[in-house]
Amino acid sequence: MALLSFLFNTKTKSASTAKERLQIIIARERHGHSGADFLPALHKELIAVISKYTRVNADDIKISLDRQGNLEVLDVNVVLPDAVTAK
Amino acid sequence: MAKIIVVTSGKGGVGKTTSSASIASGLALRGHKTAVVDFDVGLRNLDLIMGCERRVVYDLVNVINKEASLNQALIKDKHCDNLFVLPASQTRDKNALTEEGIERVLKDLAAMDFEYIVCDSPAGIEHGAVMALTFADEAIVVTNPEVSSVRDSDRILGIIQAKSRRAKDGGEPVKEHLLITRYVPKRVDAGEMLSHTDVQEILRIPLLGVIPESESVLHASNQGNPAIHLEGSDVAQAYQDMVARFLGEEVPMRYTTYEKPGLLKRIFGGK
Question: Scanning B50, B90, B107, B222, which has the fewest C-beta atoms within 10 Å of its C-beta?
Answer without folding.
Answer: B222
